[in-house]
Design goal:
Elements (H helix, E strand, L loop, with lengths): L10 E4 L3 E9 L2 E7 L9 H4 L3
Antiparallel strand pairs: 1-2, 2-3
Length: about 50
Amino acid sequence: MLVVGRKPGQYIVINEKIIIKVIKSEEGHLRLAIEAPKDISIIRGELLNQE
């Protein structure tokens, strides 16, 4: 697992195809924007744990 610190406006790139950008950061809250090809599913973790 990679753990990185990012500030709003900064981003990381995975495999040159997926971009994860921090768009807002407040006390205890974080908003991310995720850009990925349409053939890649993006699912929130709590939805996976419901099963």
